[in-house]
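Hi U.,

Before I forget, here's the chain from the pilot set. I'm dumping it here mostly so it's searchable later in email.
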Amino acid sequence: MKGLTALQGCPDADADGVADNDDRCPNTPAGVRVDATGCPLDADGDKVPDYLDKCPNTPAGVQVDATGCPLDRDGDGVPDYQDRCPGRPGPASNKGCPEIKVEQKKILNEATKYINFDYNKSTLKPSSYPRLDQMVAILNEYTDYSLSIAGHTDSKGDDNYNLKLSYERAAARAYMLSKGIPADRIEARGYGESKPIADNATAAGQALNRRVDFDAYLTGEANSAEVKYGPAPTVAQLLQQAKTSPAKATPAKKAPAKEKPAAKKAPVRR
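Structure:
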């Protein structure tokens, strides 16, 4: 009679070495390795036995499909537990998120050319609105992204005042929030005059340095302005700095050049 001698006379219908009375899985297929309860081994604890598990080393707690492999709801080849955008397909190189199209990246990268500020002002010109509206549309399309706004000034005037002004210029954010973008998806920073892109010695260079940079990044990743420029001071730090730092020194005026005495005319000979 099958299975009697090996288990001291106890029946073992599936011949897995566990007596039927103790076997919680009495119909295990022949040859399948079992644990002490007679059930097929499940090394990764995902409730799919190893002999049926195509991904037997799935990390603990990860949801799996019927084959024992991690769920990938959007079918992009990036499992949900590693996918920053599990409901929208994207490449593994972008953490499973869709990549912003080239033409849309161009709109963001070139925005600073269309959104400039007059000297000593932070009010947006109406000519800035069409480009800001395009960026609002991009954020609405790519809901997994946030936007970094970095404000800059030229070098004219007091350092602390320029830093404060750069934060105000970064408030182009307010316009986009008014168009329905959630506040936690737009972060504004001010860098004052510390990150010029042109020579401040010329009026043309100063105009280019009065700018705002716009960069999209995956929500939860490092703010792209900080990656590009480093940490920016907070408003609180700015106010404290304004109290403790002396104003920018104005260059000393040069003494007027001394006039040379007029040369004496030689007498006219008659």
